[in-house]
């Protein structure tokens, strides 16, 4: 009898602990599923759903420019998931990907010895980690992005930090992304504590807050505006937006990190952007990456 | 025999009580963790800013250039402090303010718009630049205050329905 009571109590406590662990990401999961539902509904049949999602588009556009019936994993390709013209151009460029040299350079950087004889392998023994960042570090109570983890590794080995937005930083991240993609890895962001959930919530608030002199939020373009045409381009959707970074952007004529892209976006809203290492940026990327959880890593990639 | 059974009964009651306490504590912990998502984010407040009407207080003709510039400087400092500073055409609002001050000192009637490489891309009158600096400074703060209650309206699954 006594043994039974102890067993039942232990089981109950364990169950509660497991429930607790799952509960920290309950809101984030609710948000992620609502986002998937929204985009699946939006791109199910743009012509049929014109009044709800595409009031300004022409019949011709809606009939001929969109791929229909998209499902969750399709969105990992960014706006090329639905954008017929864009996808045709994208596939042409992909025949000779301009970032191949960057992946090789990234691999060389990974294996190159620091002055103390160590390599990046001393900090990142596993190279298939693109989907694991950003992560919340409980001991420090802050979000750690891959860029900051790379710089921490450099400092730990008495090397100089790299700039966060391009150059060697983007090259090494391209190598990690490529290795992760080849290993068929998913985005797998964790929220394992109350503090991590709070960081996620702050990132979410930043994403949905209108800012700058144009009074736009990230969501204005990439949720409500996703799929709509601005000049000759269609706006990409939040879902799957972090799966393919770093990207080789034709506008940049080179490779850039997600931080570089976000800085550009916030400037476009008409606000001085937060630095790539700021708390705002880290938590924003934490939220954005969580929204792509469960999607395949598909980087590095090309964008206009 | 009866005594033994009574003792066993007491023990069981005690163990049952302990189990109940443990389960209650565990459930309480669970409830605490699930309330995380409802945690309030600290709302900054900028005293009196919400009452300011930029069309009036930043009107250079009506209020005078120096007063408007003073107001722009005051509120832009608050805007910078809260990471809300506006920028346009590659220039931060503080750069507009500095350029206006320099133009007033040198007697220039206009300021240059410079891109990030410091190359001139245009120019505007100091009156217009002052209006812009003031309205940008105040709007950045009022907008941030408004956003504290409006941002959720854009979240699918929360305030945004379709």
How would you sum up this structure, described in words?
The complex is a heterodimer of chains A (304) and B (162). In chain A, the strands form three sheets. Chain A has a three-stranded mixed beta sheet with strand order 6-5-7. In chain A, strands 1-2 form a two-stranded antiparallel ribbon. Chain A has a two-stranded antiparallel sheet with strand order 3-4. Chain A is mainly alpha-helical and 304 residues long. In chain A, strand 1 (135-137) and strand 2 (142-144) form a beta hairpin. Helix content of chain A is 47%, strand content 6%. Chain A has helices at 2-23, 26-42, 50-53, 59-64, 84-94, 100-111, 146-156, 168-182, 194-208, 218-224, 258-268, 279-291, and strands at 135-137, 142-144, 229-230, 233-234, 247-249, 254-256, 301-303. Chain A folds into two domains: 10-97 and 190-303, Orthogonal Bundle (Cytochrome Bc1 Complex, Chain D, domain 2), CATH 1.10.760; 100-182, Cytochrome c-like domain (Cytochrome Bc1 Complex, Chain D, domain 2), CATH 1.10.760. Chain A is globular and about 60 Å long. Chain B has helices at residues 2-34, 54-57, 60-63, 65-81, 93-106, 126-150; strands spanning 87-88, 91-92, 110-114, 120-125. Chains A and B meet through helix 1, helix 2, helix 9 and helix 10 of A and helix 1, strand 1 and helix 6 of B.
Sketch the major β-sheet of chain B: 2 strands, antiparallel
The percent of residues in helical segments of chain B reads 55-70%
Q: Give the rounded overall mean pLDDT of chain A.
A: 93
Strand tally of chain A is 7
Which quaternary structure do these chains form?
heterodimer
Report the order of strands and helices of chain B: HHHHEEHEEH
Largest interface: A-B, 52 and 44 residues
- Based on the coordinates given, report the CATH architecture of the largest domain in chain A: Orthogonal Bundle
State the CATH topology of the largest domain in chain A.
Answer: Cytochrome Bc1 Complex, Chain D, domain 2
- Estimate what percentage of residues of chain B fall within beta strands: 5-15%
- Neighbour order of strands in the largest sheet of chain B: 1-2
Please identify the top-level CATH class of the largest domain in chain A.
Mainly Alpha
- Quickly give the structural class of chain B: mainly alpha
Cα separation of the termini of chain B: 72 Å
What is the terminal separation of chain A in angstroms?
A: 69 Å
Tally of DSSP helical segments of chain B? 6
User: How many domains make up the 3D coordinates of chain A?
Assistant: 2
Our estimate of the beta-strand percent of chain A is 5-15%
Number of strands of chain B: 4
Helical residue percent band of chain A: 40-55%
């Amino acid at each position: 009898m006594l043994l039974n009571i102890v067993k039942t109590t232990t089981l109950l406590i364990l169950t509660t602990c497991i429930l607790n662990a799952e509960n920290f990401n309950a809101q984030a999961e609710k948000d992620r599923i609502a986002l998937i539902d929204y985009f699946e509904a939006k791109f199910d049949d743009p012509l049929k759903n014109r009044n709800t999602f595409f009031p300004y588009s022409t019949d011709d556009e809606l009939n001929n420019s969109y791929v229909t019936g998209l499902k969750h994993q399709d969105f990992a390709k960014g706006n090329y998931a639905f954008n017929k013209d864009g996808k045709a151009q994208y596939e042409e460029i992909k025949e000779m990907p301009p970032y191949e040299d960057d992946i090789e350079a990234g691999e060389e950087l990974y294996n190159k010895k620091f002055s103390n004889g160590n390599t990046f392998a001393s900090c990142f023994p596993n190279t298939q980690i693109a989907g694991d960042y950003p992560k919340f570090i409980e001991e420090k109570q802050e979000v750690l992005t891959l860029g900051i983890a790379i710089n921490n590794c450099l400092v730990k080995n008495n090397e100089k930090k790299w700039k966060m937005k391009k150059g060697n930083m983007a090259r090494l991240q391209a190598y990690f992304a490529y290795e992760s993609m080849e290993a068929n890895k998913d985005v797998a962001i964790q929220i394992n504590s109350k503090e991590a959930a709070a960081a996620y919530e702050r990132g979410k608030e930043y994403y949905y807050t209108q800012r700058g002199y144009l009074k736009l939020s990230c969501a204005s373009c990439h949720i409500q505006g996703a799929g709509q045409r601005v000049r000759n381009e269609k706006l990409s959707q939040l879902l799957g937006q972090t799966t393919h970074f770093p990207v080789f952007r034709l506008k940049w004529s080179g490779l850039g990190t997600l931080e570089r892209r976000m800085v550009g976006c916030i400037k476009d809203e008409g606000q001085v952007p937060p630095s790539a290492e700021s708390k705002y940026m880290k938590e924003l990327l934490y939220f954005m990456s969580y929204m792509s959880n469960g999607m395949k890593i598909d980087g590095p990639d090309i964008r206009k | 025999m009866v005594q033994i059974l009574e003792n066993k009964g007491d023990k069981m009651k005690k163990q049952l009580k302990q189990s109940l306490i443990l389960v209650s504590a565990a459930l309480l912990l669970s409830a605490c963790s699930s309330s995380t998502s409802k945690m309030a984010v600290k709302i900054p407040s900028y005293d009196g800013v919400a009452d300011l009407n930029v069309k009036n207080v930043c009107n250079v003709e009506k209020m005078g250039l120096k007063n408007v510039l003073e107001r722009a400087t005051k509120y832009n400092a608050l805007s910078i402090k809260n990471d809300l500073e506006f920028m346009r055409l590659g220039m931060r609002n503080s750069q507009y303010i500095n350029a206006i001050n320099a133009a007033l000192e040198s007697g220039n009637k206009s300021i240059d718009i410079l891109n990030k490489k410091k190359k001139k891309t245009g120019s505007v009158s100091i009156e217009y630049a002052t209006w812009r600096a003031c309205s940008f400074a105040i709007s950045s703060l009022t907008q941030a205050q408004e956003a504290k209650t409006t941002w959720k309206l854009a979240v699918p699954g929360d305030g945004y329905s379709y």
